[in-house]
Amino acid sequence: MIKLLHTADIHLGREFPLLGEKGKEYRNQLVTTFDKIIDLAIKENVSLLLIAGDLFDTNRVHGIVVAKVLSAFRKLEERGVPICILPGTGTHDSYGEDSIYRFVRFPPNVVVFTPRQERQTYSALGLTVYGKVFSHESASENPFRGLSLVRDSEFHIGMAHCSVKIEGLIDKDEMILDMSEIAGSGLDYLALGHWHGFKEFTAGNTRVAYSGAPEPIYMNQKEAGSVNLVTMPEKGKANVAPVRVGSKQFDEMTIDVGPVKSIDDIVDTIQAKGNPDLILKVTLFGLCSMDLDLNGQEIEERLGGQFFCLRVVDKWHPKLDEVANKNFPEETVIGRFMKSMRDKIAASTDEQDKALYEEALKLGYALLHGRSQVIE
Fold it and tell me: Are 62 and 169 contained in the same domain?
């Protein structure tokens, strides 16, 4: 029986500036999770490890990260486990002139696919892996056009870093692979990267799956956090099981401040989701009374210790009637701005223009009070 471990989109070396002080810790977490993937490969006694693109976040990764990757690969070398790596696309670890894969010397159990090497046969396994590498300019090509299968191999495994064309799910991307192209490939299993959440489906006789990112990279990746354990008991059968390896989760929530009576109501709502492994983005929106002094930063400081990272974004606006009726001295900047906007609103005969000036009044008031996050 063939047993594969399929991962992708690890993004080692990625910076996380929006996480502030936690950014470095999370960057280190990516390396720790990568080590967990290696340990899982050893525990499951897999036949082969597949990395389907974006192992590194860029081609300019710090030497310490590369050293840890090489050390991990040597652990698999000692146990006779081969590794196939497909470079990514775009601004990540693509195979361009400055590719990290041109300069790092990997252990002999590692095969990096390049324009000159797009297949690797493992005779002892009766298996061939196929991986098409793209430059920035050719990333729109079908990765399996002209694919010729190795006749002596019983199993055929493909690797690609791209989007699959699924109606209603995607519109356009760097490279889109059509389902009919997959179905006609003759592959037994297609290991995909680029989508950061797990997904599997069948095209013809080919089992297809995205492993997703082992740790979420962006705020909306709630389906990230796993790798694929693929078992192939015989030709034409590929069973895919996602295995959880990630430690962190991203989530987001919105709170309408209109009905809120006190800041404690907001604090209680956020606190209910408290989790030391959760990275949470909270957006405050709606029309708020000027008597309720909301400040996202204060909420972060109050609750930050209950999350891995908490970000509160102020996108609420003061109620227009309260802003319009509040007295601001005209010798101040805010006073002159408020008078100017009130005059424009009063003089507007077009409802669309009036709505625009009202929105400008609310935004300007918020910005002049230091809430620079109201516009993203």
Answer: yes
User: CA–CA separation, 220 vs 199, rounded Å?
Assistant: 15
What are the backbone dihedrals phi and psi of residue 168, each rounded to the nearest 5 degrees, phi first? 85, -10
Verify that 240 and 262 share a domain, yes or no: no
Percent of the chain with pLDDT over 90: 52
- Report the length, in residues, of the chain: 376
Same-domain check for residues 153 and 264:
no
CA 53 from centre of chain: 13
236 and 105 belong to one structural domain:
yes
221 contacts 242 by C-beta, under 8 angstroms: no
List, for residues 143-159, the tens digit of each pLDDT value.
Answer: 777 788 999 999 999 99
Query: Residue 253 pLDDT more than 70?
Result: yes
Asked if pLDDT for residue 236 goes beyond 50, the answer is: yes
What is the model's pLDDT at position 267?
93
Residue 157 sits in the same domain as residue 288? no
Residue 167 and residue 138 in one domain: yes
Are 292 and 321 in contact by the 8 Å Cβ rule? The answer is: no
pLDDT tens by residue, 86-132? 998 877 888 888 899 999 999 999 999 998 899 999 999 999 999 98
Which tokens hold the place of 285? 């929106």
Residues 262 and 133 in one domain: no
- Domain stop point among 244, 264, 291: 244
> The domain spanning residue 141 has which CATH number?
3.60.21.10
Predicted confidence at residue 215, as pLDDT, reads 95
- Expressed as residue numbers, the domain containing 302 is 249-374
Give yes or no: residues 192 and 232 share one domain: yes
Q: Kindly report the CA angle at 43 between 38 and 47, in degrees rounded to 5? A: 75
